[in-house]
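STRUCTURE:
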């Protein structure tokens, strides 16, 4: 615990000092993510987040967030040490926007550190709802057939039917540079 707290502080420092690369190579909504991230069991999550309470809330949090047409946007940078950044924003309230960072490992301790800019992410021991929900989704839910609510899927289908030309999954560097402006 103490070690994790230290690591978390180091990650926070790196974020605040701007030493994490600003070149995000890849950007997707969390529902479409498909990349190597440690797979955890429910017990692993309980151990990581000190019990079941927040893990149970994570599912509700993700469901509600998606239902409100908010979004998780996950960004990865191949040049950093397996650090992902997730921006969480409600499309209905641009004022509410948090950024969460998670450092993970595919060979050692799976979740090394995390940091979130929300008030809960800064002051609590443990993790805020954003971190728990991201880790829960990436490490567990997507391997266990989690699907967003039916209402959300209907919206997605309606959107898909309107798409005439598919977009390339990979954003090219020119587009990406414009997206990089808000990295700190
Ligand atoms: Zn947070």
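SEQUENCE:
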């Amino acid at each position: 615990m103490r070690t994790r707290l230290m690591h978390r502080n180091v990650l926070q420092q790196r974020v605040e000092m701007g030493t994490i690369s600003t070149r995000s190579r890849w950007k997707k909504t969390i529902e479409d993510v498909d990349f190597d991230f440690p797979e955890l069991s429910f017990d692993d999550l309980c151990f990581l987040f000190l019990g079941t309470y927040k893990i149970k809330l994570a599912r509700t949090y993700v469901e509600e967030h998606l239902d409100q047409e908010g979004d998780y946007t996950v960004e990865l940078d191949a040049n950093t040490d397996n650090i992902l950044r997730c921006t969480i924003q409600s499309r209905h309230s641009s004022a509410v926007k948090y950024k969460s960072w998670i450092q993970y490992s595919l060979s050692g301790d799976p979740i090394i550190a995390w940091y979130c800019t929300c008030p809960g992410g800064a002051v609590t021991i443990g993790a805020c709802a954003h971190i728990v929900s991201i880790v829960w989704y990436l490490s567990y839910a997507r391997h266990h057939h989690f699907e967003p609510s039916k209402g959300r899927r209907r919206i997605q289908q309606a959107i898909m039917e309107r798409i005439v030309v598919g977009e390339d999954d990979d954003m090219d560097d020119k587009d990406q540079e414009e997206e990089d402006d808000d990295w700190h």
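REMARK: The helical segments are 2-17, 42-48, 53-67, 119-123, 129-139, 150-162, 173-179.
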